[in-house]
Amino acid sequence: MVVDFQLQEVSEQGPVALTPFHQWVFPGGAIWTQFYRQTGKYLLRFPGLADFHVSEDGGQVVCRPAAGVSAQTVLHLYENQVVPLALSLLGTLVFHASAVEVDGYGIAFVGESGHGKSTLAASFSTNGFRFLSDDGFIVEEAGDGYRVLPSHPSIRLWGDSEKALMGHGVKLAPPVQYSPKARFLADDRVVFCAEPQPLQRVYFLGEGKSPKISFQRMSASEALIELVKHSFLLDIEARDLIAAHFDRVAKLAAQPVHYRLDYPRRFEQLALVRQAIVDHTCEAKEAA
């Protein structure tokens, strides 16, 4: 799963004589990423920030940053957006999710933006546990089950979560130019797990409307729909890639580890939420 990365000189983002086959758009309508298919490679354009050329097999990425874009911004784009997409070409399962380690097991939190994935990861990592990833949940088969692989050791938080969870002296990364979120680097207060962990639970987060903490077991078909929806996938038109990805996700979805999790979205409730998740995880361990 090694992706070779090359950073080239600053380049103006000129017109592309192709029509993008896909694009990501912000809720307000602004374009976040444009996907182009070129001879032997893909072009991922982040307007005003950088162009990333990804080889067809996902093994190599070449970046041309736009003028005035910081090296920190380019690196963060590469780690958070481009690497998961390149890994999808290599047959690796990567999801928009955070993950933590609890009692020697990997626990993932999957959900829409704003549903609390990073807040949960930060809450665990600052209260006696370790986080495995913030928004790039990588999972691979291991024996009869699966294991969670660690991602890059940083967590991004909105201001309210930062205020509630991070005290003074936590290691703060330089800002990136496309997001107001603060990014915190792993240290002895925001603790990172650098070793793969066996997957024990995948929690799909609700909207926070539940008056109490609730867990609901999901069927394989329900888990499949949600996992597909939250997958990193670069080429959404390549039939062979899509078919292979679907088969891998279906096999993961068949594991009896998927639950819906909802709870009141109040910071003062996080200690109770953490304990409920730990207890739910330990139930699975004891049952095994």
Q: Classify the beta-strand content into a percent band.
A: 25-35%
Arithmetic mean of pLDDT: 93
CATH C-level label of the largest domain: Alpha Beta
Counting DSSP H or I runs of 4 or more residues, the number of helices is 6
Query: How much helical structure, as a percent, in the residues?
Result: 25-40%
Distance between the termini: 30 Å
Shape, please?
globular
Number of domains: 2
Computed over alpha carbons, the radius of gyration is: 19 Å
What does this structure look like?
By secondary structure, the protein is of the alpha+beta class. The chain has 2 domains: 4-90, no CATH class; 94-287, Rossmann fold. 27% of the residues lie in helices and 31% in strands. The protein has 6 helices and 17 strands. The strands form 3 sheets. Strands 7, 8, 9, 10, 11, 12, 15, 16 and 17 form a 9-stranded mixed beta sheet that branches. A 6-stranded mixed beta sheet has the order 1-6-5-4-3-2, covered by helices on one side. It has a two-stranded antiparallel sheet with strand order 13-14. A hairpin with a 5-residue loop joins strand 2 (22-25) and strand 3 (31-38). The protein is globular. The two termini are 30 Å apart. 35% of the residues are buried. This is Serine kinase.
